[in-house]
Structure formats: C-alpha cells, structure tokens
Request: fold
Amino acid sequence: MSDTTVALDTHHVPADLPTRIQHYIDGAFVDSIDGDTFDVLDPVSNEVYLEAAAGKKADIDRAVAAARRAFDEGPWPRMLPRERARVLTRIARRPPRRAGVVRLGAADHAGARPGAPRRRELPLLRRPDRRPGR
Reply:
C-alpha cells in the first residue's frame, strides 16, 4: 500500500467535535423527547462519526413554548428598541467561538482533504455578514 493510499484511508474528525449532538432548548442541552437519534456520516468514508438527536413535532413544540416563555417573561419585551439594537449588534460582531470547527466540518462534508479550508475558500462560513459584493 502506498503512502497516498494510507493518507486517503485516514478518517479525519476535528479534535473538539462532540460525539453526540443534542437539542438546545430552554437553556439546556436535551435529548429528543422520544429518545430518537440519527447517525451523521462522513461523506468521504461513509463512516458514522457522531450521533444527533432527531427532532420531531414534540421537540419543536417544546422549543417554541420555551422561546415564547423566555420572550414573555424575560427582559426583551420591556427593552427599548435602541437597547435591543445594542444587544443584537453585540451578538453580530462577536467572533464565532467554533468558526474553525465549522470550516473544517464544512470542508469535510464537501470531501476536501483535512487542512484544506482557508479563508479564501470558505469565506461565507467564516463571516456570513460579509458576502462578496456587499
């Protein structure tokens, strides 16, 4: 077996990628109500590399109820529009904490080799608010 073949057979998963993805509802990571999950496959090797919670209607209803409760009972409806704008601007300007993992994951799903993504290759994933021509 040549070195090239060995390199192609190596499965690459970013180091800090979780092995399981849950829903984020009401301020907590939770499984689907019915416990269902699905496998997420590496598009290059077709191997399972993580398991994700399979959201269904009951999970959506739970998330919507939590969001409605947070909106109705939280500070947002009592804030002035300029205060809301400040919060949203601060969120928009904050650099994504896992941008590198997102870029690697996107490249991996596209079948790119590990280490291939660069800013010029995946600019929209790095800063979606800065699209070409804007």
Observations:
- Residues 10 and 64 are 41 Å apart (CA to CA).
- The longest helix spans residues 57-73.
- The longest strand covers residues 48-53.
